[in-house]
Amino acid sequence: MAYQERLVKTFEYIAKNLKATHTVMAIATVKGICRPTFTMMDKTEKPETKKYTALREGITEAVAIPVYFICGELAGFGAKVLRNVQDSVNIKKAKKLAEKTGDIIDIEKIKQSPEMTKKIANNLRFLGVCVAALLVIPSVCSVAIKPIVDEIIKPPKTPDTPKSPETLSKPAANTLQQLQPIRRPSINSFLGSYGMKVGGV
């Protein structure tokens, strides 16, 4: 029974404190481990292709994890900034109203509740990770991944095979055919084939 209670409390704590940032970071971590592993296990692809693809997938998820965290937490921090701005505006309005009416205001009731701030922060974190997935991560990967992969996996250089002197001295066969003069049949050979000569019989 104690084990079940601890399990229930653990799930309740995760449900109450789970953030969109944590979810996408966990997904990116699993993808960064599993996708390169499954790619290398593929026996139908060439080894060079598997290495390149696995390395590219691993670097992509390694880039995605900190980008998700930064974008999500910056968006969540924006909720606190918005709360402070909204609270200051509400307090100023309440003070002006209290000066006119003579009432006593309770500043703590005017301030935004922590529960509302938490909900706004979670929603902004979700928007932050969406922006990271759609814009930030593809932009960073398109700039950074190719140079890194090319630096790690350098393609073998194919040496230029020098041409032999005989090949260089001999022109191509089609060149010889182009250089040959065109032979035109003479009139004497044409008439001689019929028993006739130019200038008489």
Concise summary:
The protein is mainly alpha-helical and 201 residues long. 77% of the residues lie in helices and 0% in strands. The protein has helices spanning 2-17, 20-41, 47-101, 107-110, 114-152, 165-169, 173-179, 187-192.
Describe the structure.
- There is one protein chain.
- The protein is mainly α and 201 residues long.
- It has one domain.
- The chain is built from 8 helices and no strands.
- The chain is elongated, with a radius of gyration of 40 Å.
Fold blueprint:
Layout: H1 2-17, H2 20-41, H3 47-101, H4 107-110, H5 114-152, H6 165-169, H7 173-179, H8 187-192
- Structure summary, number of beta strands: 0
Task: Name the helicity range.
Answer: over 70%
- Series of H and E elements: HHHHHHHH
What is the C-alpha radius of gyration, as a whole number of Å?
A: 40 Å
Structural class comes to: mainly alpha
Mean pLDDT: 77
**Could you tell me the strand content as a percent range?**
under 5%
Provide tags for this entry.
201 residues; mainly alpha; 8 helices; elongated; disordered C terminus
